[in-house]
Amino acid sequence: MKLQVDGIKEISGNTLAIRHEPVTPPGLQGSVRETRSEVKEIAAKLDIKEEIPRVCRLQTARNNVPDSTEEEYYRRAVYVPYLDDFCNSLKERFESHKETVASLQHILTEFCTKTDFYLLEAAFNFYEEYLSHKEVVQSEFMSWKEKWSQEKSENLPKTAISSLEKSDKTFFPNIYILLKLLAVVPVSVATVERSFSSLRRLKTYLRNTTSESRLNGLALLSIHRDIKIRDEEVLDKFASVPRNLDFVL
Asked: Is the pTM of this model over 0.70?
């Protein structure tokens, strides 16, 4: 997890460095020319001509930036705004929560044997409503740390899921919750976007009255196509529900 956080920080730093380079070559203008050259190659294959959108004096609905060449227009209207938006997106999505995520990883057996509870406080403060009192969590963490301090390093679980499997929910209820939260922290929006795409295919204007339970079932079938479904289980499910008509096979 630390490597991912550091990687995002490095990407954000490099992007900001490009954004604040001087406009003159080989700074920002050099980056624009390199990108523009690649785009022009693709455009040539698709028979797309490079041109500046029309500009009028009172135009307000489009980018109306002053320019003298196509390169200057696209630098001001597209390239620089994109870099700004990209940096803001990275900051909003990752940097605002990096302290919590970096703190939460100290619950892993690989780190807990080398750290103290104060490194976990940021995660505790963020998820406080799901946990017991601070002193209880702290004593539980110390017991968790002692448990794995007695194990050889090669026997330590390396991931949140493997640590969760080795965690006793009865003896370590708060640790179990924190590990579960760490295991489900999304690394991308791919799963969410996939569900949105499936819903668009399923809930069309012709099927707008589909019930929620049926829509959820159809969406799960569409998304998780790799899961094999036995016909016998489906029939048993239908037969178990009371009906006015007898379900005869």
From this structure: no
